[in-house]
Amino acid sequence: MTMMRAVEVGALAPDLAGLSIVEKPVPTPGPGEVLVRIKAAALGFPDLLMTEGLYQAKPPVPFVPGMEGAGTVAAVGDGASFAVGDEVIVGGLTGALAQYGLYGEAAVSRKPARLSFAQAAGLRAAYLTAYVSLVRCGQAQKGDWVLIHGAAGGVGLAAVDMARALGLRVIAVASSEDKLARVDALFSPERTILGPTGFREKVLEITGGKGVQIVYDPVGGDVFDESTRCIAFGGRLLVVGFASGRIPEIRANIPLIKGFSVVGVRAGEFGRKFPDLGRENIAAVMQMAEDGVITPTVHEAVPLDRFREAYGAMRDRSVVGRTVVLPHG
């Protein structure tokens, strides 16, 4: 096969106006590179932001979106340690919404055997973010209370799953009763709260007035502001993202008086700055998946021709877990 189908961002525009399906040549792997036949690609909120140029990383146009996927090795370049037919997970800034993707070996991991390709596609980015957030940045200890906002979304639901695996006590916040019921059925957090705001009094009641040790916030805006009022002394408020659209600000006297830390989380950059720890992080997530203590949730899997539906469901906040696109489906 010399040509492949792929979603391409031809222009940065709202409402997915700059996206289309195109035919492109199948790339050839060079030294240390791996060509992967993508069987499933998971969409995350950054993939949506990139279509409008609103994400902090701005790949040059045109580009194939898709930060993570799973598939089988189709070809390898000189020096690559993978073999044709290996089942793998891939991660990068772009490239997964295509029938084939070319990756450096460092961006490729072996797929945990117990996961389907659709599940595995949604493992790397969301769960690595959860692990770096809770373990590295949040310094979580077994028994800590953690408040997880956007708990039904991709990174939020992964954080609920990861927190439960780490032995933390989870308070999950989501925007509808239906979403909370789904989160509860999947991972049984200690408590659920209807949000996105109005949670402060309930959190303080649950924690006996002390507040939570960790806040996991991929939402920002008013959610961040209210979180500063129910975090424990010595707590860590983890800034994961700004899905609300507003980047919050805080006066320095607030964390000073209340004795908490505001910690920014960039899981990928953490691994680039600290390569040894980065490899440990990925290995830990993969082992947890292999052992069955974490399991990615697939909201829906759709063929490539329906990619707009997948993006739209994520934009409309109707997804619980990850929406997956099947390039060969």
Helix and strand topology:
Blueprint (H helix, E strand, L loop, with lengths): L2 E7 L9 E7 L7 E11 L1 H6 L17 E9 L10 E5 L8 E5 L3 E3 L6 H5 L2 H14 L7 E4 L5 H12 L3 E6 L2 H11 L3 E4 L5 H7 L5 E6 L4 H6 L3 E9 L13 H6 L2 E4 L2 H7 L1 H17 L6 E6 L3 H9 L6 E5 L3
Parallel strand pairs: 8-9, 8-11, 9-10, 11-12, 12-13, 14-15
Antiparallel strand pairs: 1-2, 3-4, 3-6, 3-15, 4-5, 5-7
Helix pairs in contact: 3-4, 3-10, 9-10
Question: Mind explaining what this structure looks like?
Answer:
The protein is of the alpha/beta class and 329 residues long. It contains eleven helices and 15 strands. The chain has helices spanning 45-50, 117-121, 124-137, 154-165, 177-187, 200-206, 222-227, 253-258, 267-273, 275-291, 307-315, and strands at residues 3-9, 19-25, 33-43, 68-76, 87-91, 100-104, 108-110, 145-148, 169-174, 191-194, 212-217, 231-239, 261-264, 298-303, 322-326. Strands 3, 4, 5, 6, 7, 14 and 15 form a seven-stranded mixed sheet that branches. Helix 3 (124-137) packs across helix 4 (154-165), helix 3 (124-137) crosses helix 10 (275-291) and helix 9 crosses helix 10 (275-291). The protein is globular. The relative contact order is 0.15.
